[in-house]
Structures are given as C-alpha cells and as structure tokens.
Amino acid sequence: MKFTFQIEKIKKIQIDENNKYGDFNTVFFNKDVLPEEFNMTKKYVAGVDIHTRKIFIYNKQTNDIVDFGYFMESDIEYDIYRLMSLHSCQLILNDEKQTLCAAMRCLNSVSFFNLKLELQKTIVIGDKLNFPKPHPVAVSFPDEKIYFVGSCATPDYVYCLYYGIKYEDYVPDVKIFVFNWEGEHITTIQTNGNIFRITADKENKYLLGLLSRNNWTTTDIVKIPLEGVLKK
Q1: Is residue 149 domain-resident?
Q2: Is 80 helix (H, G, I), strand (E, B) or coil?
Q3: What is the mean pLDDT of the chain?
Q4: Which of 2, 113, 129, 201 is most buried, taking the most CB atoms under 10 A from its CB?
Q5: What's the total number of domains in the chain?
Q6: CB atoms within 10 A of CB 58
C-alpha cells in the first residue's frame, strides 16, 4: 500500500533554561562497555559496543552483561575492522516477549534473538544475503548499498526502515518492513518520501517520521496511518 503524507506544522517552543531536572535514571555498566545504538527498557539495556561493534544486553537489576560475537558468516574474508562495520545495526528490545531485534545496516537482513543472545531467526530481504565487498581503504563500505537505517517497535510489532540504495544516492521513497515479535513478516509499507527516522504509536494507529526534502536540506514531520494495514 502507498500513502500520501499528512504534513504536520512545526510549532516553536521557548526553552526554559531555569527548569532543571531532578533525579536521573542512571545506568552504570560493570565493565568497559561504551554503548552506541542502544535501546533501554525497564529491565534491560541492549546496545552495540562502540569499541567492538558486538551486541550486548545489560540487566539493570542484576548488573549482568551478556554479549555476543559476530554472527553473520560469509565466504568473503573481512579483517576485524570491516567485520565490525558489517555488523552495524539498529536494535529494538521487548521485555515481555524476551526478544531482541537487530535490523542490519550493511546487510539485507533482520535477525531476532532471545535475551541470552541466541539467534532465533534471520529474515533476508530478497533472494540471498548481499555481503558487501571490502573497500581498499575505508573500513566501512562506502561503495555498497545501505539497508536498514532505523527501527521502532510497539508491544505487537517491529517497524524497520529500509533503503536498499547506495549511500550517495538520494532516496525518492523508502519501505517500512513490519514484523511481529516472532519474526513473521506482517506487511511492507511503501512510502512516497525520503524518511530517515520513525517512531510508532503504541496502539499501532500511525507512525511518525522525519522526512527529508530537496536532498537533505529541509525536514518535515510526517504521519503514516496504519488503520487497515496491520493484522494481528
């Protein structure tokens, strides 16, 4: 299905510099982990260690950390730095379902883990996994396609924002793949704009996204209705 965006007008809000927050929900890790791309719930913090690019789950109640090695196997040999780039991903965690979803940036796939970080299922977008060719200089893959660039979730569904183009290309439209927490593909939403961030209404009535216009020069907030699109 394809939707026309409902553009929301942006209102200005005056910042009160004197309004200071009180107590913070501070998390102290019990080992040398510097998280990037992390997702926090009531019980856990799931993240990607910026030093190693490995996935970890931190239990805020017990202070235990479970981490996971590089799980994508390929006939292409990557050195350690390119292997780290290969496993760049967006993480979404569900406490109740005891499930972690990793949407891959450099691979056309989405993987689901339990909270012991045991791989449960991998979904490939297309006929096969497209492993990027190592760049002669860069540790990333600047000449290859990027795939999943953002994700969000509700208690029922995971929404994964998919590009499938090379980094320098402008994205005229994008797809949003919708899965349930068992890793089943529910539907694919075809949009008509270059969205680069999304968030979901908890009752799955709509998505909100940031839409880039004129090749990243302006940004709008857009609303994508979901009524009649999803089924449980």
Answers
A1: yes
A2: helix
A3: 84
A4: 113
A5: 1
A6: 24
